[in-house]
Amino acid sequence: MSAELPTSTTTPEETVEVFEQVARGLTLTKALYGLLLFLGCMAVMKVILSLIDRTMTRLKVEPTVHKFTHSCLKVLMWVITGLIVAAYLDFPINSLVTVLGVIGVALSLSLQGSLSNLAGGITVMVSRPFAVGDYVEAGGVSGTVSEIGLVYTKLKTIDNKIIFIPNGEISGEKIVNYNKQEQRRVDLTFTVSYDADPERVKEIMRQVIGAHPKALFTPEPFVRTTSLGESSVGYTLRVWCATQDYWELYYDLLEQVRAAFDREGVELTYNHLNVHIMKE
Fold first, then answer.
1. Structural domains counted in the chain
2. Residues 19 and 106 in one domain
3. Where in this chain does the entry annotate a coiled-coil region (predicted)?
């Protein structure tokens, strides 16, 4: 019968006695077989890890997830190997498992926040809502993804700040990826005076779009009257471009449409109130 590990109330002398009982039942032959069992478990562990690495490489799993999974499985298999060898050598396995379980619960409670972020990091890496280099809005912050870690994701803002966002927040909120698609649409609205000819206004906007090298014409650009305000008419311009050209086209069209309106005498208006004084 295997000896029982001492409880928390046992003395050091009783602990030594337990291991002495295990040692007395250990023979040279049993020790050699135990060593062979250990080496066999090591060989099996190496084969399993190799198969898992090949599978993850074939599936193109995120490198960070691959490395983390490999490390976790390696630790788990080391624990299983230790339990198998200990059981063969008549060590008290049930008590060892109980102790490991208590340690695991204590660690999980003390690292609850970190484990939540760790789970979020694995979710982000497996689902791949964004990649390094993408401009995203996540966790209430916008920026370019510079690094995806297991616990934090690093975003670089347009004013060159690095922000660390816990992955637990990212995985539980809405994520907007501005680089996921190859094309994006620029939407602009201009408010023009009622005195301007609508067809002339739209033609000026079409000419500006046609002259820009970054504008795409499939799908066809959209230029229409979209609102009739109290003191102005709203014209909306929608044109597609390559994702990397979005901001350049956006600001170019703002400047060039304004300049074209000025040349053609089209008044860009704003909210205002006209007061007419009537004399009797």
1. 3
2. yes
3. none
